[in-house]
Amino acid sequence: MTTLTLDDAKKAVAENPELVWFKTVYQGDTMPQLTLRAVLMGAILGGFMSLSNLYVGLKTGWGLGVAITACILSFAIHKTLMAAFPRIFKTEMTLLENNCMQSTASSAGYSTGGTMTSAIAAYLIVTGHHIPWPILAWWTFFLACLGVFMAIPMKRQMINVEQLRFPSGVAAAETLKSLHSEGAGAVAKARSLGIAGVFGGLIAWFRDGGKPFAIPGMLQFPGSILGVPLVKWTLSFEMSSIMIAAGAIMGWKIAWSMLLGGVVNYAVLAPWMASLGAIDLSKIGYRAIVSWSTWTGASILVSSGLLQFAFNWKTIARALGGMTKILKRTDPHHHNDPMEAIEVPASWFLGGTLISGLGCIAVLYFAFGTSIWMGIVSIIMSFFLSIVACRATGESDITPIGAMGKITQLAFGALAPSNITTNLMTASVTAGAAGASADLLTDLKSGYLLGANPRKQFIAQFLGVFAGVLIVVPAFYVIVPNASVLGTAQWPAPSAQVWAAVAKLLANGIHSLHPTAQMGLAVGILVGMILPLLERAFPKKAHWVPSATGVGLAMVIPFFNSLSMFIGAAIALYLEKKKPEIAEKYVVPVSSGVIAGESMVGVVVALLNASGII
Question: Mind giving me the DSSP string for 280-318?
C-alpha cells in the first residue's frame, strides 16, 4: 500500500502534482471504499457527535473536531463487532472505507449543526420564536448541500496543486494510517498516537469533568491593562492541548503570524479602542473585543484570500474549465487527463449549486420575506467567501465562519438596513456554506494523502448531510425549547449573542458602526492586500512577511488560542531543527493523538453533563 507523506507531497509540486499523485499514490480502484457499512457507520457516529457539537456550541460557541474521533471510534467499534459477531462481521473495514466513513460522519456531525448555534439561535433571540421545524429542516439541508457543492472547483487547486496543509485532514489521515499499518515503525507511531490520546483525554476529563479532581480551565498571567486584569483581555493560557497540537501540524509561519496579530489586537488595539470608547471598558472580555476587531480581521481575511485566489487564475481556469464541456456527452476515461475520471465532475458543481442555491432562495423568500434578488446576492457572496474560509482552514485549521457571516451581515446592513431577519438569514447562507465547504476539503485532504477516489468520498460526504439533518434539527428544539433559555448560565450561546447584536446594530445601517470599526475595516482591506503582494515582490524574504491569514484569524479568535498554536509550532520547529528524525516520525501522530483524545473525551463529558450524571 502506498500513501503520501507531507514531504512527498511537497516534492510532487515541482513536477505535475496531479499526475505524480495519480501514478504513485492513487489506490481508489484497488480496495473497497464507498460501501454501505462505511456510510452507515459514519451516519451513526456523525449523528451522535452532532448532538455533542450542538451542546458544546451553545455552551462555548465552538465545535469539536469530528473526523479523527470518528476514525478511532469506527475502528474500535468494528473490531469489537468482529470479535462478538464473527459470522456477521467477517472482514475488517479497509483504510479507504474508514476514510469514506469519516467523511460521512464529519458531514453529519459538523456541517449541519454550525448554523444552529449561530444564526438560527440568533434568530430565536431576536424574534422570540422558533422557525417551524419543516422550514428549518429544509434550510439546514440546502445550506449544507450548497457548501458541499461549492467546494468542488476549489478542491483541485487548494489540495492537488497548492498542497495546502489542512492540519485536521493530515491528522485524520495519519490516524487512519496508524490504525491500519503493520510493522515496528507503524506500531511505534500507533503507540505514540495512543499515549498522546490518553494525555489529551485526561486533560479534558480533569478540566471539564472535574472528577476526581479538577484542573483550572485557564492559567491567568499577572498584571493588568487600564486597570483590567490581563485575563479579561484574553491574555492568558488555556488548559487545552488541542490548539497546541494543531499548531504543531500547522507550521511555523502561520503560527508566529497569529501570535503577532494576537498581541497587536488584544494588547494594543483593544486597550486603545477602549480608551476611545469604541469598546466598553466596564464589559471588557472576548465578546466585547471581538465585536470591534471582527471587522478588521474579517476584512484582512477576505481581501487577502480573494487576492491570493486571483494570483492562481490559471489553476482556477483549469479547475473550472470542464464547465464548458458539460453539454458534451464524452467519456472522461478518453480524456488525456486521468484525473477527470475520478474527480467530481463540473456538472455536479453546476447542478448541485443551482438546485441547493434555488432551495435557499426559495426558503428565504417564502419563509423569511427576503427578496429573490437579495437571495441571489447572498448565494454569490457565499461562493467567494467560501473560497476565503477554505483557504483559511487549509493554512491554519481554523474556519472563520463567524467572520464570513459578519461580512454578509455588513453587506446586507447596507442593502436592507431595517430588516434584521434578512440580515441574519442571508448571513446564515454564507456561514453554513463556508463551514460545509471547508469541512469537505479537510476530508478530501485526508483522502488525497491516502490515495482515495475523491468522487466516491464526495458522495459519502453528501449522504452524511441527510443523517445530520434528521438528528440535529429535532434535537435543537428539545435542547432549546424557547428563547428564554438562551443567554443564561445553562446556554450562554456566545456565538448567537454576537450574531444577534450585530444584526441589531446594522439595522440602522453601516453608519451606525463605530467610526473606529469603519476605519478598521478599510485598514484591514489594505493589510490583506499588502502582505500577499510583499510576499510575491520579495520571494527570498517571504518568510519574514507575516501571513495575512494568520494576522486576520488572530483578530477573530481569543489570544490564548493563538498563543497555544504558537507554542505547538515552536515545539515542532525545534524538533525539526535539532531532532529531525524524531520530528518526522512523531510530530504528526502525537499531535493527531492529542487532538483525538481531547476531542473524544470532550464529547463524553459534554453528554454526561447534559444528562446530569456529572
Answer: -GGG-SHHHHHHHHHHHHHHHHHHHHHHHHHHTHHHHHH
Cα separation, 193 vs 205, in Å, equals: 18
Which of 207, 280, 282 is CA-nearest to residue 241?
A: 207
Amino acid at 302: V
Q: What angle do CA 88, 90, 91 make, to 5 degrees?
A: 140
Q: How confident is the model at residue 60 (pLDDT cuts 50, 70, 90)?
A: low
Domain boundaries, the chain: 6-608
Q: What angle do CA 571, 577, 581 make, to 5 degrees?
A: 90
Closest CA to 548 of 566, 573, 564, 526: 526
The helix/strand count (H/E) of the chain reads as 25, 4
Q: Cα 517 to chain center, whole Å?
A: 26
Q: Which three cell numbers stand for residue 296?
A: 478588521
Handedness of CA 442, 41, 39, 385 (dihedral sign): negative
Predicted confidence at residue 419, as pLDDT, reads 84
pLDDT at 330 over 50: no
513: three-class secondary structure by DSSP: coil
- B/e letters for 258-267, b = 16+ CB within 10 Å, e = fewer, are bbbbbbbbbb
Cell of 453: 477516489
Cell numbers 472563520 correspond to: 400
Q: d(Cα 113, Cα 121) in Å, to the nearest integer?
A: 11
Separation CA 112–CA 136 (nearest Å): 11
Report d(CA 203, CA 171) in Å as an integer: 19
- Taking the CB of residue 540, how many other CB atoms lie within 10 A of it? 6
- 353 residue type, one letter: T
Give the other-Cβ count within 10 Å of 321's Cβ.
Answer: 12
- For the chain, the straight-line distance linking the first and the last C-alpha, in angstroms and rounded, comes to 45
Distance CA 475, CA 606 (A): 15
pLDDT in tens, 535-594: 888 988 888 999 998 898 888 888 988 899 899 999 999 999 999 888 877 888 888 788
CA 238 to chain centre: 20
* CA angle in degrees (0–180, nearest 5) for 2-70-100: 50
All three cell numbers of 181, joined, read 499499518
- The rounded distance, in Å, linking the Cα atoms of 532 and 308 is 7
Alpha-carbon distance values, 492 to 59, 166, 227, 483 (Å): 6, 30, 26, 12
User: What is the pLDDT at residue 322?
Assistant: 44
How far is Cα 101 from Cα 49, in angstroms, rounded to an integer? 14
* Rounded distance between C-alpha atoms, residue 44 and residue 438, angstroms: 22
Q: Note the pLDDT tens digit of each residue in 129-172.
A: 999 999 999 999 999 899 889 888 888 888 888 888 888 888 88
Cα distances from 160 to residues 157, 468, 469, in angstroms, run 6, 28, 30
